[in-house]
Amino acid sequence: MRVPEEVVRRLRKQGYYIVGRHSAVKLCHWTKERLKGGKPCYKGTFYGIQSHRCLQMTPALFNCNLNCLYCWRMHNFVDAIVEDPDDPAFIVEESIKGQRVLLSGYKGNPKVPRRLWEEAQEPKHMAISLTGEPTLYPRLGELIEEAHKRGMTTFLVTNGTTPEVLRDLDPLPTQLYVTVAAPNEEVFRRLQLPPRPGLWQKLMETLELLPSLDTRITIRHTLVEGWNLGYVDEYAKLDEKADPDFIEPKGYMYVGWSRLRLRAENMPTHERIMWFARELAERLGYRIYAERPESRVAMLTKHDDESKIKLRLQ
């Protein structure tokens, strides 16, 4: 299905660099913040990534199989399948090129140390998470392999409704994020608006699959006040099934297109997120490793060994 040109123009105006037929790059707020000598993103605090060298991209710009109310992106999705997919090596090379184009205006910024700008020209982390559902890109394993060949770590964020893709994914990403934003099927149906039946069951299949995957696993609970925040016992049962290395309770942020679907009062305070984190940690036997109040997020882990938490960076 052809994407309307008006949608493409609007995305470019919002700072997206379009790559090929179905991919895109966009500078993260924290990449820009770190370039100016500020804080890293919470993934830097939690896992040690270098935010100014992080490439935020998607190979499925126009493709998703859910319509989550809390998503801050425009719901411009045209299909649940990426048809006629671009070559993975092309996507990675053009994404790096796009990142450099987006960074070009920072070269002469007096707030940006020259060393950081030069390092940013060679990204070391690829966050496959920008928008859409990346597992709908049928050559995802090759894309991850291309990033790894270039010495980049990969963070793949998925809504967990394609267990068949994750089961056969080779290679696996450096770290796999699975969003679990509903404690039960009823909340999933109302908050994430699946267009067809059976996707909750697919998510359950993914949670059962996760312990068998030989990579770092994070469960992310995106929490929306008045919708899915609470239900600690039900979330704990889902997390026990997944047995992740890390759990990130993260508050919904009232930004972007989500403001057309939700209200400001649906954004939980950091205190509420920490309450949830403490309750969940107690039930699971995990510990709270760190928190970032400005991002309204905490990280729980089952590990005591620091080497199992921080990434080994090339």
Describe the structure.
The chain has 314 residues and is of the alpha/beta class. The protein has one domain (5-308): TIM Barrel (Alpha-Beta Barrel), CATH 3.20.20.70. The chain has eleven helices and ten strands. It has helices spanning 5-13, 29-35, 42-47, 88-103, 114-120, 140-149, 163-168, 185-192, 199-209, 232-242, 270-284; strands spanning 17-19, 23-25, 54-58, 125-128, 153-158, 175-179, 216-223, 246-251, 287-292, 297-301. Strands 1-2-3-4-5-6-7-8-10-9 form a ten-stranded mixed β-sheet, sandwiched between helices. β5, α7 (163-168) and β6 form a beta-alpha-beta unit. α4 packs across α6, α9 (199-209) packs across α10 and α10 packs across α11. The longest helix is centred in the first third of the chain and has 16 residues, at 88-103. The chain is globular, with a radius of gyration of 19 Å. The chain starts with a helix and ends in a 13-residue tail after the last strand.
